Amino acid sequence: MTDHYNVAIMGSTGAVGQVLLELLDERDFPLNELRLLASARSAGKTVPFQGKALTVQELKEDSFDGIDIVLASAGGSVSQQYAPFAVQAGAVVIDNTSAFRMDPEVPLVVPEVNADDLLAHRGIIANPNCSTIVMVMAVWPLYRHCRVKRIVVSTYQAISGAGARAMEELEAQTREVLAGHPAVPKEIPHQVAFNLFSHNSDIGADGYCTEEKKMVLETRKMFHDEDIQITATCVRVPVMRAHSESINLEFESPLAESDARRILSQALGVEIVDDREANHFPMPLEASGKDNVLVGRIRQDISRPDGTGIDLFLSGDQLRKGAALNAIQIAEVLIAKDCVRVAV
Amino acid sequence: MTDHYNVAIMGSTGAVGQVLLELLDERDFPLNELRLLASARSAGKTVPFQGKALTVQELKEDSFDGIDIVLASAGGSVSQQYAPFAVQAGAVVIDNTSAFRMDPEVPLVVPEVNADDLLAHRGIIANPNCSTIVMVMAVWPLYRHCRVKRIVVSTYQAISGAGARAMEELEAQTREVLAGHPAVPKEIPHQVAFNLFSHNSDIGADGYCTEEKKMVLETRKMFHDEDIQITATCVRVPVMRAHSESINLEFESPLAESDARRILSQALGVEIVDDREANHFPMPLEASGKDNVLVGRIRQDISRPDGTGIDLFLSGDQLRKGAALNAIQIAEVLIAKDCVRVAV
After folding, report:
1. What is the CA B93 to chain-centroid distance, rounded?
2. Global ipTM
């Protein structure tokens, strides 16, 4: 096997799994075999891919024979349980769950930020949390130019982050509410139709929820900067698919708005949407289905008269760059750098 | 006339006007006459109030004879044009538009913050912008205890802020989108169903929109503190009625989370909704129709290890405390302090 790879997807029927399939096709990924793995419940289902019907196989300890790359997005406990078997079988696992992200032996990577960290992988590579990914896409290019000391971020997170069933629930619940019926939350803990709520992950003793702590800790790990200070407030909004974030940055020294704009306009994976005249800025609807993170509202923070502050607003597709696309880009870098562990 | 007042409403058929009528009834406001004034287009319509049908009269220069209190919410240019005639006729105008807010001779008041400023009124009193009002309800009690140096706020603003027609549009547009039809924005400049966008007020040379500048300038005026630094990012979300805000506060000296919580739990007009166990925090749906601003997610800002930061999240009814309720509370204070200019 030289330049085509055997890829397995764990969790191919979920929201991220669906986009992984779309992207493998769209990007002409050098595939040899594509193996879809899922729980016994989903085994036997067929999934269309490039004109063929692929049959989902039951995920087992010996499912990884001959596999080069595993794209895992079936939940943290599934990754915990099966990733070691995949690694033993010689595959590299690109894990989209939180299972290994803070493991010091596991690289946590957004290719535009820290692709070099991939070189040290020992079989497992972690894909960061979606809200962290879209944030660092805008913050890292600026950070490289002028160190960011502190970030204050508030998120406007789409319901896609809670999975495919939650997306269906937003739609169904909205129909109910419009029909004058009460909303009955199922997957999602609160009414989301015409409402919003604080991100429903567990709250720690410090009052931060897990989602917020991910944004703090994952950013520090990827930036290799334990001193960058970050506070985050994560909020779910009745939007289907792309996450938005309001980001306030405090720099070590003054950074002019014009420099910030120039740097971001040259950044890979970033598209500037910042038309003040037309009042046209990043919107989740326009970010949905796009690979690039849309960045706008770029302005000097008037609350820092010394010029050390920049405000911006972004929208990025949570399922693409926030999850599936980043995982596939990691695989592409591994291939380009020739550091996929090829089986046998 | 001793303890009952002749009240005129300019703009009684709008979203705020409707809530003004609700509140005058609900709060048993000491009414003698209630006169509804509107443009020629709306004149002749009848509006139900306390079991009677009030006929809307055309707003003219001589509409204010015998009126003690004018509640104005028919738009800035209407207030500009007619408020002077109301004052000449001996009435006090409580203006819900932006027309006079930054006029140094006009008190800008949230009664819980700066009721004493009312004493100096010369006939016109300005009601602050909705997003400013709900913010200062949480910030002022803390500020009084320990000066706030800097505020970073991101808003999640309901569509009610754009008026009654915009609320209808959110509903109609959502139905269209659910039916698979494209959204056709009318009142609102972008699709709002399952989307969000940067607040569509004019953007200044500094990149801030008018709504954001209001939050900065109005807060400084009410706090009598030109040095408080504020940066705001204002965003419209597909929520019907209450505004939410993610607020990061930087204090002059350390403030413990427990003190912040105690101070806010004692603050008038504030209700703490901060159940970490049940993941239950302020939501616009629960704030809608309520007089109190709901405040939660109160926590020490981990990005300020010296203890000088507090984060919080709030939801407040934009039409009640954010507009109509505040105006009526101003009238109630004027009555209690005996500084309504009584006609004749």
Report:
1. 16
2. 0.96
